[in-house]
Amino acid sequence: MHERHRKPKLREPPVIWTAGPADAPAVARLLGEFRDWWGNAEPSDEQMLASVGRIMEAGDGEYLLGAAAPGREPEGVCQVRFRWSVWKTAEDCWLEDLYVREAARRGGLGCALVDAAVARAQARGCRRIELDVNEDNEAARGLYAACGFTFEPKPPGRTLFAGRALG
Q1: Residue 117: what are its φ and ψ, rounded to 5°?
Q2: Phi, psi (5° rounding) for residue 55?
Q3: Which of 22, 79, 125, 156 has its CA 20 to 30 A from that of 49?
Q4: How would you class 5 by CB atoms within 10 Å of its CB: exposed for 0-12, middle for 13-18, buried for 19 or more?
Q5: pLDDT at 9 over 50
Q6: Which secondary-structure segment (H or E) carries 52?
Q7: 36 in helix, strand or coil?
Q8: CA 128 → CA 62, 65, 78, 122, distances in Å?
Q9: What is the pLDDT of residue 158?
Q10: For residue 78, what are the β-bridge partners?
């Protein structure tokens, strides 16, 4: 068969799963890579693993892992947290972290992780899913927009993220 008559090879969709306790080291490793990507030194790898375990045990958060193909090691992670909202009279979902290794980007893994987070939120009865994203991170903003998120200030004006360190 001539090269120009071959059908294009279709890429398999990414594989996404909810991380269990045995996956905690992989989750912590990917979150550590995310920490390093941001240029941070803290928390340590040991603290990261302990926090992952604590969140898994508490039941108010989950980790989704993703690989570009079946049988491959995880190349992306998504952390989702849940809390009750008096305004929605249901749980809210907060997409706290999303990280995909550089080599696995642009293959649909990030979008598959976001879609899985949305599905998990819907399965828990959440009425909204929210996140924050760095204004300068065009790739992340593009990903979230492609996944149906909107970037609009909440009325009556621009809502700002505020935080205060304790201790």
Answers
A1: -65, -40
A2: -65, -40
A3: 125
A4: exposed
A5: no
A6: helix 45-58
A7: helix
A8: 16, 21, 17, 8
A9: 62
A10: 64, 98
Q: Taking 60 as the threshold, does the pLDDT of residue 51 lie above it? A: yes
Alpha-carbon distance of 59 to 15, in angstroms, equals 23
Question: 13: cis peptide before it, omega within 30°?
Answer: no
What's the pTM value of the predicted model, to 2 decimals? Answer: 0.86
Model pLDDT for residues 134-160, shown as the tens digit of each residue:
888 899 999 999 999 988 766 666 666
Residues listed for the chain:
167
Those residues with Cβ within 8 angstroms of residue 24's Cβ, 6 or more apart along the chain or in another chain = 49, 52, 53, 56
CA distance 101 to 99: 7
The strand order across the sheet containing 76-85 reads 15-18, 61-67, 76-85, 90-100, 128-130
Q: Which residue is it, tokens 């201790």? A: 167
- Based on the number of CB atoms within 10 Å of its own CB, is 125 exposed (0-12), middle (13-18) or buried (19 or more)? exposed
CB 95 within 8 A of CB 73: no
